[in-house]
Structures are given as structure tokens and as C-alpha cells.
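Entry for the shared binder. Reason: the reviewer on the internal report wants the predicted structure included alongside the sequence.
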Amino acid sequence: MSIGNYLTALDEQRDQLARNLVTMGVQASETEKLNTLVPKVLQIPQTKPDVTLFRASIDTLHDYGEKVYTFYNDGYRSLSGFTESYQHFCCEENGYAIYYNQPDFNWGQTIFTMCVEPVHISSSNKIMMSYRSGATDIGEMWLVPKNNDTLSPADTARYIYEAIQNNQAVSVLFGWLGTVGNYINVLHECSGISAGEYYLAWKAITDNTSPMIRSVKVVDVTI
């Protein structure tokens, strides 16, 4: 490459760097020199990491087996314990997704699912759920304020469920969207919720929705 072509390419890269910095929220101009643009990379705002409450994978039961609990008509069980009795709920065949299926539960059964590890929630957060659903329908999701007592995971699940039943939980606007067999990522607003530590819980029914959940995260949407 000739020196002229090299300098032209360098100018193009400088201009692209300036545009990229602006895109990432840093003041920059294509008239600036590289030696002033390059240090500005350190000014790019650092996004807060997502908090994953559940993720379907071959390691699901190892990673979340005692962090996610259910309440069904036979009581409280951890994810690991629940899958021992309901083999399609979180299995290899379904990619280890949480699956509120009719082969295990028959029609119209209600299952509460509770994340027993608290997560910090503020108005800048959203709850992102990746799922498949057979139909569009109203759903229910809650945030339960953290219990400051030292509780076992099972007792925490009981605390969450009883808070929901006693109207001591914060409802999150939530509904299932029919996905035509595909997974979709849906964000749910946390605006208006007082900042603090919460447990997340939701309800699913083995009806036309029979949802299959691939992941649940709390994400920060601050720009």
C-alpha cells in the first residue's frame, strides 16, 4: 500500500472511530486527531451486567436447581425436586426449558414459579423473559420484597407464595404472547416500583398457552 493510500485508510478509520464514539454516547468529532479520539474509548459508559435468574442449558439443574422453586398442588419443591416427578418440565428433550406441559399436568393446572435469590430492582430495570407460548393470554407476575430473616430456600419459597396470596407482592404488568412456535424475548416494565431487593415470581397455566421458558433476566435499560 502506498503512503497516500495508507493515510487515506487511516483517515477513514479515524472518522469511523469518531462516529462509533458518538453512537456510544461520547462526544467526538471527525475533525479530531487519533491521539485525542483513542483515549475517549475509556469514556464509553459501562452498562450494568444482566442478572440471570434462569437459563435453559445442559447445566440448568446444576446452576438453578435450588434457586428456582415451584408451588403446585403437591406443595413446594425446588426445580431439581420438581423435575424428578414431572419429567417434561425441565428436560433434555425440551432443551431444559421450564415447560408447563399437559403430558405432565393435564389441562388447566396452575403452577407458581419463584426465584428464591433476591435481585435489586429499580425503575431503570426491566424483566426480560424468553419464551414460547401457544396462545396470547393474560398472565401474572410479581415482585416480592426481600425477607431480611435468614430463611432456607424452601422457606423463602413459602414466604414468596404467601406474600402473593396475602396481596403483599407488587404486580408487574405481564401477559403471554402467542409465538407461533418460536422463542421471543419480551421486556416487562419495572417503572413505578420502589428501588430495593425483590424476589421474582410468576404464574403459568397448562392451557392453550402452556408456555416454555428459556431464560429470565433482569436487565438495566439506562442509556
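Summary line for the report: The chain has a mean pLDDT of 88.
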